[in-house]
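Entry 12.
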Amino acid sequence: MDLLIDNRLGNGGWFLDRVNGLFNGLASEFEPISPPVDVVEDHDGYRFSVDLPGLKSDSLEVKVEDETLVINAARNEPAWGKDKDARVHRAERHHGRIHRAFRLPGDVGRGTIKAAYKDGVLEVTFAKVPEAKAVRVEVAYSN
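Predicted 3D structure (tokens):
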């Protein structure tokens, strides 16, 4: 009987894809959005360019925490999402929590961070600083 069911469903095929799609859509509602980012290094430093269109200034947070650049933001639900009578024919724009985190290299000057938001793009820059060199430490021996 199992073989008959497998053959009729094509080993799950379209049926399982549809069932999984129902739950994947639900899970994605709660996952943070991960916007595209360009990371560029030149001789002076590093530049992170993050596409974040439609954000309000109070919804964006940039910080360095434990050698990691952390970018958090939130994009509010569109006004039509609150209207119970609205019929949405297509909704492709994402809203909700936005999160990206990047481990920083050792030659990044933590005190040199600058961030600017213009035309829907967040630019975060860090200057390079010379890496600390190893220092030999003399050991004092006592009898």
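Annotation: Helices lie at 2-9, 13-28. The longest strand covers residues 68-75.
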